[in-house]
Here is the input.
Amino acid sequence: MTALLKAEGLVRRYAMRRGLLGRSVEVRAVAGVSLTVERGRTLGLVGESGCGKSTTGRLVLGLEAPDAGTVAFQGQPMSAPGTVAWRSLRARMQMVFQDPLGALDRRLPIGVQVREPFDIHGIGTAADRPARAIEALRAVGLRPDQAARYPHELSGGQRQRAVLARALATEPELLVCDEPISALDVSIQAQVMNLLVDQQERLGLGILFISHDLRAVRQVSHRVAVMYLGTIVEEGEPDAVLHEPAHPYAQALVSAIPHPGRRGGRIVLQGDPPNPADRPGGCAFHPRCPIATALCAQEAPLLKPRAVDGRLVACHVAHGDALPGAGEVRRAA
Ligand code: SF4
Here is the structure.
């Protein structure tokens, strides 16, 4: 069956100036990402802040054009951003951002903002759009009388529900959620995630769930991809990747979350946090990897299925192409 969303080899570069008068350097925020989102399924995308997750989300929606690579929606190439074809596609693909207050217009009542997608995409008649907006609010658990409220008159959870109501108003097929619960109280996070799952069941939504919160990702995802410095380094079933990760970076990420059944303590990574402007050669993780070998500094590992279980991993050691080292590359650097 044709995938709902298929991205292949996405690359996004930015020019960044070093210092006030410094020369411009190229930053590869996304360095060759391929991913697939199926209908009715959620792909969780995890990684540290600055690893390229959010840029990937914008690229797959066409909010930014990639420097290389392709995006196909239901088998059709993504139209160029800003074109009429792209705008009509946008009704079927929506995005939910981290900060609901920033995503909403503080000067307009919630009901007006939820009605906007119907106006923009010409859905229904002018007369029935207010009622449609009320229905959209009801679908996310907000009351009709809350349509008259302004964003600052709602709680953080209610605001994120309003954002979801607006995103879901056009009954999209794809939802890209970029840290949708990070700004919410813990007590509200579960409500919003349950709401996402309910709406996925109702609409058959495909969801790209971008987060640094591994527990949230485990709860909502059917597959998980781990990103490091602009590339996906591991991808597979949540129970496998988040319980027994194969890539050393994924192992370090997961080890930070207490889990009763997991062996071993927390892995504390050495070295500097990743800087996309100084991308190391070979495996980009090698300066921080506790088991790096000489091969790791020379050759970038490919993301490919592991022989033992088919899980996608980009690591020479995980594939048995090199024996675990002891950080000798890091010492030599
Ligand atoms: Fe570590 Fe080498 Fe695997 Fe990269 S390829 S994660 S440096 S062992």
